């Protein structure tokens, strides 16, 4: 079984996870890190309680959108899926909030692929995405884990808010081209199929890069799983 690790990064509120800032308003049973740790999985009841838009990770994992998903903690979600007949054990790293955090040292060592999210109605989030892409590209030159450029996906989220658009489609496209990564605009709130297609595309690119690596080197050189446990010490959730 192939193991794929994706990090979903972006400015606060870009719509990475579906974890809104209304956490404080949520009933304790529906949110809170301790409760989520105890349950060990996303809480389906949340979807019934909140009919507002949710974001990429939760949308992909649950098929539903959850507008305000309470969490104050970073975590790694896990999911098993079948891609082109191949079993994949997927881990998705979801930081609590990316605000101001650009170092990415741990993430660059851990992740096989990145999804960088910005909000098309928020220029500041686009600037942050740009800085993240720069950081990732820079790491290709350093000692961090090498990754294929196609394993980075730039996503302009909240396309349903195009009447409030601050970032043009062409700007996103250009930024992606400059950084040799893939690009799409979508709405986590309204475009479930597009969200899935985007994740699948990243997964395909990552797994095909694995195949190339497998051909190039003997087995036994790949085990970052223990390292990530030591570095992050995060909870793992099955969905
Ligand atoms: N209209 C619209 N709102 C969205 C969409 N995706 C997310 N939102 C809303 O945007 C807000 C922020 O979404 P989150 O998923 O919490 O954003 P985040 O990037 O995880 O934010 P942090 O947890 O602060 O890092 C929430 O109120 C979501 O309901 C979308 O596609 N369209």
Please sum up the structure shown.
The protein has 239 residues and is an alpha/beta fold. It has helices at 33-39, 45-49, 56-62, 105-110, 123-141, 169-178, 192-216, 225-232; strands spanning 2-10, 75-83, 86-94, 113-119, 152-157, 182-185, 236-238. It has a seven-stranded mixed sheet with strand order 6-5-4-1-3-2-7, sandwiched between helices.
Folded structure, characterized:
The structure is a single chain. This protein has 239 residues and is α/β, with parallel strands linked by helices. The protein has helices spanning 33-39, 45-49, 56-62, 105-110, 123-141, 169-178, 192-216, 225-232; strands at 2-10, 75-83, 86-94, 113-119, 152-157, 182-185, 236-238. Strands 6-5-4-1-3-2-7 form a 7-stranded mixed β-sheet, sandwiched between helices. It is globular. The relative contact order is 0.20. Guanosine-5'-triphosphate (GTP) is lined by residues 10, 12-20, 52-55, 67-68, 97-98, 157-158, 160-161, 187-189. This is small monomeric GTPase. It comes from Apteryx owenii. Its EC number is 3.6.5.2. It is an enzyme of class 3 (hydrolase).
């Amino acid at each position: 079984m192939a193991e794929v690790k994706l990090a979903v990064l972006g400015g606060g509120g870009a719509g990475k996870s579906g974890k809104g800032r209304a956490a404080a308003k949520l009933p304790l049973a529906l949110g809170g890190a301790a409760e989520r740790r105890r349950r060990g999985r996303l809480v389906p009841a949340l979807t019934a309680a909140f009919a507002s838009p949710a974001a990429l990770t939760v949308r992909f994992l649950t098929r539903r959108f959850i507008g305000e998903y309470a969490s104050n903690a970073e975590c790694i979600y896990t999911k098993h899926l079948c891609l082109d007949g191949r079993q994949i054990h997927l881990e998705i790293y979801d930081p609590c909030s990316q605000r101001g955090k650009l170092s990415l040292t741990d993430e660059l060592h851990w992740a096989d692929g990145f999804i960088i999210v910005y909000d098309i109605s928020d220029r500041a989030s686009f600037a942050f995405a740009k800085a993240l892409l720069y950081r990732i590209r820079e790491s290709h030159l350093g000692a961090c884990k090498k990754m294929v450029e196609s394993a980075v996906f730039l996503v302009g989220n909240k396309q349903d808010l195009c009447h409030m658009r601050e970032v043009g489609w062409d700007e996103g496209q250009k930024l992606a081209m400059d950084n040799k990564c893939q690009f799409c605009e979508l709405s986590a709130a309204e475009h479930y199929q597009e969200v899935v297609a985007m994740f699948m595309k990243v997964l395909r690119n990552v797994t095909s890069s694995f195949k190339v690596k497998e051909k190039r080197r003997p087995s036994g050189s790949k085990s970052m799983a223990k390292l990530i446990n030591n570095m992050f010490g995060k909870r793992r959730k099955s969905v």
